[in-house]
Design goal:
Elements (H helix, E strand, L loop, with lengths): L1 E7 L4 H8 L7 E8 L5 H8 L3 E4 L8 H14 L4 E4 L8 H6 L4 E5 L15 H9 L3 E8 L9 E8 L6 H25 L3 E4 L2 E4 L2
Parallel strand pairs: 1-2, 1-4, 2-3, 4-5
Antiparallel strand pairs: 5-6, 6-7, 8-9
The protein binds 5-O-phosphono-beta-D-ribofuranosylamine (GRF).
Length: 206
């Protein structure tokens, strides 16, 4: 059984998608939701279905290394196998990436390598896609490496940009049509043992 921790900072719609799709990954368990924000609505979503929650607040730690060490300690204590970043607002330390190499999954709301990297969160990737004039955008689920949004890509899903799109509308469609199904599929494939990473290429054994 793969024990999963979902790391969140906010509303947790991606967490909700995972909760709703639990039956599709019977080899995995949503064991823990860890939030960097004590007021995150994601905590309520977890608690309402009986998933353990814990808050590790960045403000309680002097720097990123100490903060991510505290997270690492919680995950080790809970014997977590797979970490899912679902709207987690912090970049994890290189130590964290090393300990959990190819065992941390992130969902990014753009087609990497476009509109990604430091500072590209919230509405920004969507606004950047509109400003650039691309005709397609979407979401990418990938393993986490020390480089922001730079790790091996597991899967991508695209959608058309519409003439009257705003960043807000695009964000909503990307979430509903790309992020939520893609993240659930990645967790399903991982927990079924279907993902093999060679260099930066992820091979999927379907
Ligand atoms: C999503 O757009 C996700 O791609 C990004 O942060 C947002 C989180 O939304 N990493 P939610 O908290 O899952 O609703």
């Amino acid at each position: 059984m793969t024990r999963i921790a979902v790391l969140v900072s906010g509303g947790g719609t991606n967490l909700q998608a995972l909760i709703d799709a639990r039956a599709t990954f019977p080899d995995a368990e949503l064991a823990l939701v860890l939030s960097s924000n004590p007021d995150a609505y994601a905590l309520k979503r977890a608690q309402s279905v009986g998933i353990d929650t814990v808050v590790v607040n960045k403000k309680d730690w002097p720097d990123r290394v100490a903060f991510t060490r505290a997270i690492l300690d919680k995950l080790t204590e809970q014997r977590i196998d797979l970490v899912v970043l679902a709207g987690f607002m912090f970049v994890l330390s290189p130590e964290f990436c090393r300990v959990y190499e190819n065992r941390v999954i992130n969902i990014h709301p753009a087609l990497i390598p476009s509109f990604c990297g430091d500072g590209m969160y919230g509405l920004r990737p969507h606004q950047a896609a509109l400003d650039y004039g691309v005709k397609l955008t979407g979401a990418t689920v990938h393993f986490v490496s020390p480089e922001t949004d730079g790790g091996p890509i597991i899967a991508q899903r695209a959608l058309d940009i519409l003439p009257d799109d705003t960043a807000e509308r695009l964000q909503r469609r990307v979430m509903e049509q790309c992020e939520w199904p893609l993240l659930c599929e990645a967790v399903r494939l991982y927990s079924a043992g279907a993902l093999t990473v060679r260099g930066r290429i992820v091979h999927i054994d379907r």
